Amino acid sequence: MKKIFLLSLIAFAAGQILLISCKKKEPEGPPIASIFYSIANKQVAFTALTKRADTWNWDFGDGQTSTEMNPVHIYQEGGIYDVKLTATGNGKSVDATAVVSLALSNMQMLTGGIKATSGKKWKISSAHSAKDAFALADDQFTTVQPIGTGMLGNVGLGLGEVYDDIFIFKHDGTYTHSPQHGGAFAGLLYSMLTQQQILKATAVSQSFGLCYTAWTPQAATFTLNEKKDFTITTVSTDGNTPADRTYKSVMTLTFSGAEFIGFMDFTRECIVQEITPAKMRLVMFVSTTQKAYYNKPSYVVILTFETVP
What we know:
Layout: H1 2-22, E1 32-40, E2 43-51, E3 55-59, E4 65-66, E5 72-74, E6 79-89, E7 92-102, H2 106-111, E8 120-124, E9 133-136, E10 143-146, E11 166-169, E12 174-178, E13 183-187, H3 188-193, E14 198-200, H4 203-207, E15 210-214, E16 220-235, E17 242-255, E18 270-275, E19 279-286, E20 299-308
Antiparallel strand pairs: 1-2, 2-5, 3-4, 3-6, 6-7, 8-11, 8-20, 9-10, 9-20, 11-12, 12-16, 13-15, 14-15, 16-17, 17-18, 18-19, 19-20
């Protein structure tokens, strides 16, 4: 029995020695660190993806900190936060950073928030969306013609310039319109009646009453109206019957002076149908009749805008 026990002890010891010798020795050097996180409303679960670290110091960007390896943090307010992890090991430290955006307000999504000192840039998306369309200015914005990928450019209207123009919103309410080709997407009737120089109008674009019109940007401000009853006088498509129409509880964008976004016509206030940090969809009014109610819209153009890096 003693012999069997001794042999078992020797075998166990040999196995332990073999196991230890097979383990890879962790190389010496500074720690390696990166950050993974997941968001649920204002609660963020952080994970420290580290090697050769034995302490972790988190700065959540809102004045709060933690020394847990994988903390869960609840932010009191939505916003954009710069998060930093300092991992220490082998007597050395390394930093990892991440930008966390959560529960953003519509204003923060539009402008990039107070941290975006240069503002947030937008342009018309050439990819469009399933909801982009030329539509009636009725209560439902009834679609007349869907706008597919690239339709405003050479595959459709031939006005590809409109995809390049940039619109910049800043958190302080200032607005910069940056035409890349000296003009703006505009209503053909508006341009003719106000004697604006038409830079480009193709046969197809004229059939929709649209063109690319010369425009010199103006220093401007904007107002994001989060929720309002927007009343506007529209006119029937034959140009004979005006009617006051109220779009209830909508979000709108208004601008100082004669500035606008995306589309220039008699009506400069537009409806924001949807906004996310990366995209927004706007409804812009189009006037198409030369009769008595020439400056009243009968149609709308619905376009998706995307952020510019």
